[in-house]
Amino acid sequence: MPSRRHDSLVFTVVVSSIAALAAVPFAILMLLAGEGPSVVIASLFALLPVGPLVACYLWLDRYEPEPRSLLVTALAWGAFVATMLAILVQGLGGWFADLTDEQSLAIVAPITEEATKGLFLVLLVIWKRQEFDGVLDGIVYAGFVGIGFAFTENILYLSAAYNGTDGSAPGGLAGLGVLFVVRCLASPFAHPLFTAFIGIGLGLALSSRSTLVRVLSPVVGYLLAVGLHAAWNGSTLVADGVGFLVGYALVMVPTFVSMVIIAIWVRSKERTILTRALDDAALRGLIARDDVRHVVDLRARRQARAFAHRHGGRVAADTMRDYQQAAVELGYLHHRVLRGTAPKNYEERGQMFVERMHAIRPRIAFPVPMVAGGRHR
């Protein structure tokens, strides 16, 4: 059976190719927006918040890690495809509708940017439905798309600030530094936060048995993303920047804190969901009951891999990881079966996971827990 890491190859190749094609005109656009050195400097500053943001989303994604190839693809889509499409649509809209810069910033930009970012999530649901299990996956994928989008957009804004072509003074490193504090330090979470509502909407739709929820939640999620984005952009136009400070304190910070709480709460439920599903799977003979703890408990999961590495090296640790990953996939699929929201091919996919686990199981061994008195159980 093909392993999960190869399941997303076609999707990754196609979307990555689209991103590569979009990167070419975008690179030309960035060079036209400013001199070469300013683009390089702006890129270095724009890159600084990317690492910490990526680390936060990877932490959220620990229970059922998404394929790294898809996460990188999400970054690339946000950085090149979504930004390029948004620029093209906004340019055409400004031409045909004769919109002012303020109207474009407060209305057109939120509508088009959230649509182009959200398009990746829609494609993922259509093409790689099995990689999108619920709300947490929606938040994670939306986060990576938003990080990529913000990175490229920040390059454009920081480059313009450095060159003094954005209407702000004084230009140079001073002008770039002021904008860096506002965009990269004070609000690096903005784009991931906006698009998270789309991810939540799609996640609710995929995990619900209600037809009404499946239809309305993605629409509501998109409208919330656009509304918050519009409020954020529009606040910069009020009272010479005072509106931005008020909006940041009263809207953005509370919304961001609420989203963090929601994400952590959803993540905390993952262990309960996985435990119940795999306990039921163990009753059906799909997995050994003693193995469940080494799958659902993150600390025990790490200890099992470390134990395998000590006794068999890197190959043994990778084999243990493959077994645990197959068990995790089986658990989430079985959870959806128990809820009545399983995909049409759930029997085929479930059999694939079980066969992978049974093929690997004779080649691994879990650490034996200690009992009182220091003896092995």
TrEMBL record:
Swiss-Prot/TrEMBL keywords: Membrane, Transmembrane, Transmembrane helix
GO MF term set: peptidase activity
Alphabetical list of InterPro entries matching this protein: PrsW (IPR026898)
Spans traversing the lipid bilayer: 9-33, 39-60, 72-93, 105-127, 139-160, 180-205, 212-232, 244-266
Keyword Transcription regulation: no
Source taxon at top rank: Bacteria
Protein name: RsiW-degrading membrane proteinase PrsW (M82 family)
Lineage of the species this protein comes from: Bacteria, Bacillati, Actinomycetota, Actinomycetes, Propionibacteriales
